[in-house]
Amino acid sequence: LNIKKKKKQQYNNNKLHFEAMVDYDNFKDAINQVAEKYNVDLIRMGTKGASGLTKVLFGSNTEHVINRGNITVLAIPDNCKFSSLEKVAFTTSFSRLYTKEELDPLADILSLNYSKLYVLHVFCDFDFSEELSNNIDFFKANFKYPFFKYLDVKDDDVYKTLHQFTTTNTIKMIAMARGKHSFFERLFNSNTFKNIA
To answer: Which residue, 51, 78, 50, is CA-closest to 64?
Structure first.
């Protein structure tokens, strides 16, 4: 309750409503249950990461919610200061087709911030030529003037290549769609990624 009181004082805004909840379930299941009960559109999580030998970009709680949750997650790194979202990157291996509904949160963020969308097609293991062609058509039909970039990388260099691209091109946010055995899982579970992060 002290946290709720502090947040109300810090963000003195009638549009914000804070609700305190206590749940004794595991973290991921508790969040999924609350999100379903209250019809939550977006989960925002601050990320400090783990410490010591297991240090990664995202902490284990954030990783579990992203990988196994049912709701869109906005993960914000520690000490991140908002400047603008002029450029947003959506990373994909195009191994499957997307739907408009699953990318609606991305479309909303782009619209609210007048952001340019960079669709980064990451070639890792296979060339999904049919899915690639269909997804390019999908992005052109559902997003305003998307930029397509192709990154041909080794599987263990995905994070390094993405980091280099986003830094060089001043990308402010990276978006991904989760899927079973997805590009996202490979990226965030690789030892190389953990070492680089």
So the answer is: 50
